[in-house]
Amino acid sequence: MWFDYIVIPLLILVARVTDVSLDTIRVIMVTKGYRNLAPFVGFFQVLIWILTISRIMANLEIWTTYIGYAGGFAIGTFVGMKIEERLALGYELVRVITRADASMLIKKLREKDYHVTFVKGAGREGEVGILFIVHKRRVIKEIIEQINEFNPNAFYTVEDVRFVSNPEYLQRSGRLLRTRFRPR
């Protein structure tokens, strides 16, 4: 009795956490261009789902399996987002608009081997400087820290970049920042 009401629902919960986490990662891989790897993740995700749903169907009279299934979905969504956050797949564009002199910020970013493109523009209140920085998502936090340190009043946006034509260009400290699985 305790096996049916406690152990099976816990196994369903764990399987569902795994299944939903893999699904979250698979969807993100598709949107980030890792289309060759996403089907393999999807295969295991669906295999786990089929095994899980078959246990639910075999135990329809046990209400705790429903709790395990729903709880696994909720926890799996959270875990999937955390895993994706740690993987930091893809590239992002940081666009910085500043009225202050951006030369120190540009100098510091370039000293840290970040590629910065600078153009002058005209804003509502006069001349502005616009910086464009495209880099691997995992280093964007460092770039934003530099922006806040050298120009805390700058306005910036961070946007997802779906494709980078020449990832080799985005070098830092003499090493490539490509992942093992190059997006297509």
Short description:
The chain has about 180 residues and is of the alpha+beta class. The protein has helices at about 1-30, 40-60, 65-85, 105-110, 140-150; strands at about 90-100, 115-125, 125-135, 155-160, 170, 175. The chain has two domains: about 1-85; about 90-175, Alpha-Beta Plaits (2-Layer Sandwich).
Which key phrases capture this entry?
184 residues; alpha+beta; Alpha-Beta Plaits; 2 domains; four-stranded antiparallel sheet; two-stranded antiparallel sheet; elongated; disordered C terminus
Topology:
Blueprint: H1 2-32, H2 38-58, H3 63-87, E1 91-98, H4 103-111, E2 117-123, E3 126-136, H5 140-150, E4 155-161, E5 171-172, E6 175-176
Antiparallel strand pairs: 1-3, 1-4, 2-3, 5-6
Helix pairs in contact: 1-2, 1-3, 4-5
What does it look like?
This protein is of the alpha+beta class. It has two domains: 2-87; 91-176, Alpha-Beta Plaits. Helices cover 53% and strands 20% of the residues. It contains five helices and six strands. The protein has helices at residues 2-32, 38-58, 63-87, 103-111, 140-150, and strands at residues 91-98, 117-123, 126-136, 155-161, 171-172, 175-176. It has a four-stranded antiparallel β-sheet, with helices on one face. Strands 5-6 form a two-stranded antiparallel sheet. The longest helix has 31 residues, at 2-32.
